[in-house]
Every structure is written in structure tokens, then in C-alpha cells.
């Protein structure tokens, strides 16, 4: 037998050890377990099918159907009773004042007085200068025709100043630059007390009582006057709802209808000046004046407003007065 050499013995020993290590490594790999869960995910049926959401939708649908049925029954009852019982309308009914009836009565009395004056001017004596009675034939020829006696120009202007005063306000961006003058014509027939307060404040040049609190570009300019009026602080003061229509033009001076129910806060009168015609405000706001000059000045104030009404720069009134008392 040939004896194995030293080199052959080392190769045999090396191959044997490699095989043994390989077997041990393979056995160790077979016992390894993964630290990460690689199995399929666990399906939650209630989340996947959204059972809870479907149940909530079912209950909501039942509630909506029930409310709709109750609403239809309510509407049916209101229609059958013409809204006289159990109505949703909780607003207090605002009774109209008798101001327009008074104004109409005044016009009728004035017309009758003018007609009576015409008759008195056309009356002829029953006796002549010589004392002879005038014949019935000549007296029958007298015809009394109704005619209107025209007032003098001075009286017309005076009446216009009293019933439709014109006020002016000089506006300025505080501590920055002046904007200009706006002239507003007021209508006493719309709200006598409100017009009186505006005219009184401007005639006394109490400009610091005016304050503009909100500006809505494209909508209106909202302001306040710090005056005390006991009549306006009470409900249902004299007013005429349709004296000026909001769709007749822009720059309409008005106040909210809600003040007719509860009155203005004592010491504070709120008003707005619109930037454009707004037919939607007819019947909702009482208009008592309109801008007749200074439209561009009013348009410039829109640059200092925001969508939510907050004023960027404070706009103040530096001077005010009655247009009738100043030289043009």
C-alpha cells in the first residue's frame, strides 16, 4: 500500500472540514426564523366593508326621511290654515306709519285752500256801485274754474330747503390725504327724525360725531352718528318705506328695517351709503337720502375697505354743513 503523502493528507483533511462546516451551516440556516412578518395581512371586515359608516348613513337617512315627512305635514297644515297657526315665521310684523296719509291729507287741504282762494278772487258783488242789484243773468255767467295758484319762486326754494335739505361732508384719510366733498340730499318724507338729526349735526358742524366703521367694496359704506334721539330709540317711529327705491341708482343713504322694531341704540344712529344699485334692498332698508355730488370721492373710499368690512385706513369727516346756507 502506498502511503499518503503529507500534501494529500492536508487536502483530504481540508475537504472533510469544509463539508462538515457546510453541513453545520445548512443546519443552522434551516433553523433561522424571520424577524419580519412576511405573511399575508389580516383583513378586518368591519374596516374593509365600512360597516360602521353604513350603519350611520342608514340612521341619518331614516332621520332625514322622518324630518321631511314632518315638514310636509307642517306645510300642509300652514297652507290649509293660510299661515294663521303654528307658523315658522317668528318675525314681528312691522306696522306702517300713517305718515303718507298725513302728507296726502296736507296736499288735499292745500289744494282746497287754493281753490277757495281762486273763488274768493273771482267773486263779484251782488250790488253795483250805484246800489242797483246785479241781474241774475249776469251773475249766472260767473264760472268758477279750479286752478292752481303757483307759489312764488322764493317760497318754492324755501320749501325745498325745509323738506329736502342738502348736506355736505368733507372726507379725509386720517393723517394721510383729503378725499373730497360729497353732497347728500335728504328727504324728510322718508324719515323726519333721521333727516332732522343729520341736518342738525351738519348745521352745527359737529364733524367728530360721524364715524365710518366698515367698508365693503362693491357693496356699501357703513357709518354711525353719535347723537341722542329719544324718538328714534323707540320702536315704530315715523317712516315711509318706498320713498326712494334702491334700484333707482347708486349712492343711496339708508338704514336697516330691524331698527323699526326695537329702535336705534340710544346715542348711536347707524346708516349706510351704497356703492351700486341694489334692488334686493327694497323693502329691507329705509332709504332717506341720495348722493347728488361727489360720486368719485365715494368710489375712492372703496380702496380702504376689505371683503369682511375691516377698514384699512380710517376715514374721517373734517367738515360738514348745510348746502343751502353756503354760497355756491
From TrEMBL:
Kindly state one GO CC term assigned in the UniProt record: cytosol
> Residue ranges of the PPIase cyclophilin-type domain?
177-322
Task: Indicate yes or no for the key word Isomerase.
Answer: yes
- The region annotated as signal peptide is none
Q: Which UniProt keywords apply?
A: Isomerase
Q: Which family does it belong to?
A: Belongs to the CFAP97 family.
Protein name, UniProt field: Peptidyl-prolyl cis-trans isomerase cyp5
What organism is the protein native to? Bactrocera dorsalis (Oriental fruit fly)
Amino acid at each position: 500500500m502506498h502511503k499518503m503523502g503529507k500534501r494529500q493528507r492536508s487536502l483530504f483533511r481540508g475537504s472533510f472540514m469544509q463539508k462538515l462546516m457546510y453541513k453545520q451551516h445548512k443546519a443552522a440556516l434551516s433553523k433561522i426564523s424571520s424577524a419580519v412578518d412576511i405573511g399575508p395581512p389580516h383583513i378586518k371586515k368591519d374596516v374593509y366593508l365600512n360597516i360602521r359608516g353604513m350603519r350611520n348613513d342608514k340612521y341619518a337617512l331614516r332621520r332625514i326621511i322622518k324630518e321631511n315627512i314632518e315638514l310636509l305635514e307642517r306645510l300642509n297644515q300652514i297652507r290649509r290654515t293660510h299661515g294663521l297657526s303654528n307658523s315658522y315665521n317668528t318675525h314681528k310684523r312691522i306696522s306702517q306709519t300713517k305718515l303718507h296719509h298725513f302728507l296726502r291729507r296736507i296736499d288735499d287741504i292745500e289744494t282746497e285752500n287754493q281753490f277757495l282762494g281762486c273763488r274768493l278772487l273771482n267773486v263779484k258783488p251782488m250790488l253795483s256801485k250805484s246800489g242797483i242789484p246785479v241781474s241774475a243773468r249776469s251773475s249766472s255767467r260767473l264760472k268758477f274754474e279750479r286752478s292752481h295758484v303757483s307759489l312764488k319762486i322764493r317760497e318754492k326754494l324755501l320749501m325745498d330747503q325745509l323738506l329736502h335739505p342738502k348736506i355736505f361732508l368733507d372726507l379725509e384719510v386720517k393723517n394721510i390725504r383729503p378725499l373730497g366733498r360729497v353732497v347728500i340730499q335728504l328727504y324728510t318724507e322718508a324719515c323726519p327724525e333721521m333727516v332732522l338729526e343729520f341736518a342738525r349735526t351738519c348745521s352745527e358742524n359737529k364733524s367728530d360725531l360721524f364715524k365710518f366703521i366698515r367698508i365693503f367694496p362693491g357693496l356699501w359704506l357703513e357709518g354711525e352718528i353719535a347723537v341722542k334721539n329719544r324718538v328714534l330709540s323707540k320702536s315704530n317711529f315715523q317712516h315711509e318705506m318706498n320713498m326712494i327705491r334702491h334700484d333707482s341708482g347708486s349712492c343711496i343713504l339708508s338704514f336697516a328695517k330691524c331698527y323699526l322694531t326695537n329702535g336705534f341704540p340710544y346715542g348711536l344712529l347707524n346708516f349706510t351709503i351704497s356703492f351700486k344699485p341694489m334692488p334686493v334692498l327694497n323693502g329691507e332698508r329705509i332709504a332717506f337720502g341720495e348722493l347728488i355730488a361727489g360720486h368719485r370721492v365715494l368710489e375712492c373710499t372703496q380702496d380702504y375697505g376689505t371683503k369682511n368690512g375691516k377698514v384699512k385706513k380710517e376715514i374721517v369727516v373734517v367738515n360738514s354743513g348745510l348746502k343751502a346756507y353756503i354760497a355756491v
